[in-house]
Amino acid sequence: MDRMEQMPQPDRRLVEELARVTRETVREELREQTRKQRRTALLYAASGATALYAGAAVALAVGLALALGLPDWAAALVTAAVLGVAAYLLRNAARPHAGKPGHTAGGDAPGAPPSGLGTAYPPMPAAPPAADEAGPAAPRQDDVDPEARERE
Q: How far apart are CA 79 and CA 64, in angstroms?
């Protein structure tokens, strides 16, 4: 049996009304937050587009200033080279370097598992084992005879 069916009629109506008001209040609050987030996203997009045009205007001004002392093609080439170097430096600043000590290609491994027990990974030997320590060699692809399986 349902809990609502066990309640007296006035209590049941009160619970239904309270649930309806709660749903409407939550919906209205979510609408308001969404409106604010849309406005913020629109302002960020407009800011980015404006900054892009400002950067283009600065690049044009640099090119025109260089054109006073250089041929036009050389001024444009110097401006493009400066922008290319700036883009390269910004890209390198944005991503982690593989050459940093303690950095691995896939990210840094955790020092210990989340449980706090032991190490996260088994220790790796510093160098591969010597040929005499390795035991029997694994068969190579050339050593395997596919017809031998069928004969067995």
A: 9
